[in-house]
Amino acid sequence: MQIFPFLVVAWIVAVGLYGLVTSRDLIHQIVCLIVVQSSTYVLLLGVGYVTGGIAPYFSDISAHTKPVVDPVVQALALTDVVVEAAVTALLLAFAIQAYKRFGTLDPHELAELKG
Amino acid sequence: MDQLYPLVIAVPLLTAAAMLAARPLLEKQRLVRDLVAVAASLSVVVMLAFLTYGTIGGDTVYWFGGFRPAGDVVIGIDFEAGPLSAGLACLGAVLMTASMIFAWKYFTQVGTYFHVLMLTFLAGLTGFCLTGDIFDLFVWFELMGVSAYGLTAYRPEERGPLQGALNFAITNSVGAYLSLSGIALIYGQTGALNMAQIGVAVAKHPADRLVVVAFLLVIAGLLIKSAIVPFHFWLADAHAVAPTPVCVLFSGVMVELGLYGIARVYWSVFGQSLGHRAAISHVFLVLGLLTAVTGALFCFRERHIKRMLAFSTISHAGMFLIGIALLTPLGLAGAAVYVIGHGLVKGALFLCTGIVLHRLGSVNEPWLHGRGRPLRVTGVVFTLAGLGLADLPPFATFLGKGWIEASAGAWLVPVLILCSSLAGGAVLRVAGGVFYGLGDPPLEDPRMAEAAAEETSETVGGKDRTPLTMIVPPMILVAAAVGAGLIGGLGRVVQAAAARFQDQSGYDATVLHGARITHPVALHAAGSTGVTALDVLAGLGSVLGALILAGLALYWRRLPVLRRWRPNPSVAAAARRFQSGVVNDYVTWVVIGIACLGGVFAFIIR
After folding, report:
1. Tell me, what's the ipTM?
2. Is B177 in contact with A37 (Cβ distance < 8 A)?
3. CA count, 13 A, side-chain hemisphere, B195
4. Do residues B292 and B416 touch, judged by C-beta distance below 8 A?
5. How many whole angstroms separate alpha carbon B315 and alpha carbon B418?
6. Is there a contact between B587 and A21 if contact means CB atoms under 8 Å apart?
C-alpha cells in the first residue's frame, strides 16, 4: 500500500469539513457533505488496490495468473454511492423546501428565524 | 427459531414496500392502512420477544444463505442475537407499536409515507442491533438515519422541522462517513468485515496506530448518534420539531442504539487489541459525566416541553455511557435495564406531551400553566412517568441505576442522583404547573402566546376529548416500566447476558465455531443484583431531590432569599449561543471533539 492515496483522502476530508464549517449557503454545504463522502470512495478503493492488479473479472482469466484488485471494496463503494444518493436527494429536497417557504438558504438566517 | 432472523427484517421492509406500492388505494382506506402498519410492527415485537427469550441460555447466530464460516474465514453475513441486542431491538419495536397506535387519531392529515418511513426505521434499528458484520452496521445505521431525517421533516411547511432535520441529517451524515472511513481502514488491515473475524485478526498483535485511528473513527459516528457532549447539539433541535410520536423513538431507542453500537464494536472487535482498559474506561467515564451534567442543567432551564425532554435524554445518555464505561458486567447490565426503563418512561412522557398538544395546542410550559387541569388522566400518567424518570422504586429505571451506582462506587453516586433529580424535577415542575396549576403563575410575556401558537399544524388543538388510542399507549408504557422492575430473576439473567456480551473470546467462539456459551469467563467478578436498603434510599433520595427542585422552581418567588433574584439574561444568551441552531457550529464542535478524543487516545494507547 502506498501512502499517497491516504494523503489524498485526508485532504478531501479536510476540504469538505472546512466547507461545511464556513459556508453560508445550504446547497454549498450539501455539496461539501458530498465531498466528505467522496473521501470514503478514494479510501475504499485505495485500501483494495494491488499494484499491477487487474479488474476482478474471472470469466476469461484464471484467478492465479495475475493479481486482481480487491472486488469487495468495490462492492462497498457501490453501496456507499447508493447511500449517498439517498441522503443527498433528501437533503436537497429539504433545501428546496426551505428556499420556497422562507426565501433563504443561509443556515444562520434559518436558525434565527426559528427563534 | 432460525426463520425468525430474516423475518424480523423482511416483515417491516416488505410491508413498507407494499404500502408504498398500494398508496393510491390506502390513502382512502385509512383504517386498513393503520391496521396493517400496526400489525406488522406488533408481529416484529412478538418475534423479537421470542428471539430474546430463546437466547437467555446462550447467544445464537444465524448465517444468511447458509454461508457458514470455514475455519476463521468468514464469507457470509450473520445475525447474532443475545438478550441485550435482541432485547434492545424488542424495546424499539414496542415503542414503535405504541407510537403508531398513538398516531392513529393524532395526525390530522397523515399520509402513507409516515407509516412507510416508520417501518423502514424499524427494520433499520432491528438490523443494527442484530448484525454481526461491521459494514452492515453502517448500512443499517444509514437506513435508520435516512428514515429518521424524513420523519423529522414530516411537516415541511414549517421552518422548525426543516431546520432541525437539516442539522440532524448533516451532523449525523458526517459521523456516518467517519465511521465508514474507520471500517475501510480496519478492512484494509485485516481483510475482514465480520466483527468476530476482525477481532481475532487485530488481537494477534498489540494495537498499532492504524487500529487506534480506526476505532476512533468508527465510534465517532456512534458518539454523534448517541448525542454525547460535545456531539449532542443536533438532538435537541431535532426532538423539538419532530412529530411527537416520532420523538418517542428518537429518545427511547435511537440514541441508545448509538451507545449499543459503541459497546458492540468495543467488546466484539477492538477491546482485546486496544488493551489499556483502565485508561479507556476513564475517558468514557469523563465523557459520560460531562454529558449527564450538561444535559441535566440544560433540561432544568428549558421551558419548551419537547426540548426539555430532549435534554433529559441527553443527560440519561450520559448516565448509560457511564454504566457501559465501567466495563463491568454489573455496570453494563445496569445500563441495559436503565435503557429499558428510560425508554418506556420517556415514551410515555412524549405521548402525554402529544396529548397536551392535541388538546391544548401548545407545548410552551409558561403558557400552559394551569390549563391542563381538565386532562386528569393524562396528568396522572405524566406525573407517574416523571416519578419514574426520577428513579422511584420499583420502576426499572431505579433498578438499572442502582446497579450502575453499585458498580461505580461511592464517588459517582451523588452526581448520578443530582442528574436524575434535575431531569425528574423539571418534568415534575411541568406536571405540577400544567396539570394541577401549582406554583405562581408565570410572568406574562408577550412572546408567550406567539410561541404557544407555533406548533399548530401537527395536530388539531382544542379537541374536547382524548381518544382512547392516545391515552392507552402511555398508560401501558408506564405500567410496563413498573412491571419490568418487578420481574424476579431479571438481575441474574441480564448480568449473565452482559458478561457474555463482554467476553470477546466467547463471542468469537459463538460466531466462528457455532459454540453455545452459557457460562462466560467474566473479566470482572459479577456483582450483586439484589436491592439493598441503600439502593432504595438512593432512589428515594433522587425522587425527593426532584420534588424539592420542582417545588423550588414553582414557588421560588415566595422564598425570602430568592425574592429579589431574577434570571440573569447573559446566562440565557450564552446558553442560546452555545446551542445556536447553526449547523456550521455543530460541525465545528464535531471536529473539535474528535480531535480532542484522538489526542487523548494517542496519549494513552501506545
Report:
1. 0.93
2. yes
3. 33
4. yes
5. 11
6. yes
Interface of A with B in 70-109 (CB under 8 A): 72-73, 76, 79-80, 83, 86-87, 90-91, 94-95, 97-98, 101-102, 107-108
For B216-251, the three-class secondary structure string (H helix, E strand, C coil) is HHHHHHHHHHCCCCCCCHHHHHHHHHCCHHHHHHHH
- pLDDT tens sequence across B65-78: 888 888 778 888 99
Predicted confidence at residue B576, as pLDDT, reads 72
User: Which CATH number fits the domain that encloses residue A102?
Assistant: 1.10.287.3510
pTM for this predicted structure: 0.92
Give residue-wise pLDDT tens across range B422-476. 999 999 999 988 888 887 777 656 555 555 555 555 665 556 677 888 889 999 9
**8 Å CB contact between B155 and A84:** no
Q: What is the pLDDT of residues B123-142, one digit of tens each?
A: 999 999 999 999 999 999 99
Instruction: Identify whether the C-beta of residue B534 lies closer than 8 Å to the C-beta of residue B416.
Output: no
CB contact under 8 A, A13 and B150: no
Q: Which residues from B are below 8 Å from A86, CB to CB?
A: 142, 146
Least confident of A34-48, A60-74, B544-558, B559-573: B559-573
Place of cell 431535532: B238
B451 → chain A, closest CA residue: A115
Q: Report how far residue B484's alpha carbon sits from residue B341's, in angstroms, rounded to the nearest whole number.
A: 7
Q: Which domain holds residue A78?
A: 4-114
Question: What's the burial of B276, exposed, middle or buried (CB within 10 Å: 0-12/13-18/19+)?
Answer: middle
- Give the residue from A29, A40, A108, A112 with the most B CB atoms within 10 Å of its CB, the best one to mutate: A40
Rounded CA-CA distance B256/B235 in Å is 13
Residues in chain B with CB shorter than 8 Å from the CB of A30 are 170
Tens digit of each residue's pLDDT (9 = 90 or more) over B81-91: 989 999 999 99
CB–CB of B159 and A114 under 8 A?
yes
Start-end of H helices in B269-362: 271-274, 277-301, 305-325, 329-360
